[in-house]
Amino acid sequence: MIKDIKGLHHVTSMASDARQNNCFFTNTLGLRRVKQTVNFDDPSVYHLYYGDGTGSAGTVMTYFPFPNMMLGRPGVGEVGETQFSVPKGSLKFWQDRFTMQGVDGLELDTVFGANRLRFMGPDGDGLALIESSDDTRAPWVADGIPDDAAIRGFAGARFSLHDTTATEELLSFMGYQRAGKEGDVTRFVIPNGNGADTIDLAALPKTPFARPGAGSVHHIAFAVDNREKQLEVRKALMDTGYQVTPVIDRDYFWAIYFRTPGGVLFEVATNEPGFNRDEDTAHLGEALKLPSRYEDYRDEIQANLVPLAA
Fold first, then answer.
1. Is the pTM of this model over 0.90?
2. How many domains are there within the chain?
3. pLDDT tens, position by position, 204-227
4. Residue at 269 is within a domain
């Protein structure tokens, strides 16, 4: 069994409009934009990162905004809901804020004993705020959002699957422990994690497969401390039969990827070197940062990207 995974590292989704996406996550949700760079495989498209003050593992939502991308269709074989942690008693603040700002899909309920506010991002993204009384992570506090309501980072994520059996086995191998079941949803928790330590598996045997597009999660990443631990995780996964990519340098972390039995793309990412490797912490996300292989084309790339602020 793998013992080095600490919880989530980041969640990466797709969007149809970079400016709209940036406004929603920095203004409506009050997260900090900790990095603006480009898709390493398609430098005509931004890669935007939002999180806490430093982009700590377990807090970072990232997006590939492909201009005018078709909306995704929710279904099975994907991360159906990305869940953020907020302080206990703060959902009334968020419900009022979302109502005033015209956020769609508002729905209050409880999940495994915690109050939850479900809502949609600009492209119909499945998102939720979940109250926690013991999340000690320091938030990024934006204008208009008090400290006692601000997002602390991820709580976890919910997968939508036809059959959860194989994914349950995989999560158990990755160090997660089964923590309960409500209806068709089974909860797994990583012990002594980084706060973003919950995965819920929803069994939806009659639901059609998802069609990826804007608003869909592209992949979900799990955190390990460093490259040494990552190589141990890679070997363990490959020894179990998973087809895992070589280690890929993503500038701010190293990454490996593999496809899970339920269809969800997993990444295992290192906590090192972090988002301050090429920017001072006080100025994270302010300038466009490019992978070194694209630096010679900066003027051309920047001219084709829509400015994030009007």
1. yes
2. 1
3. 999 999 999 999 999 999 999 999
4. yes
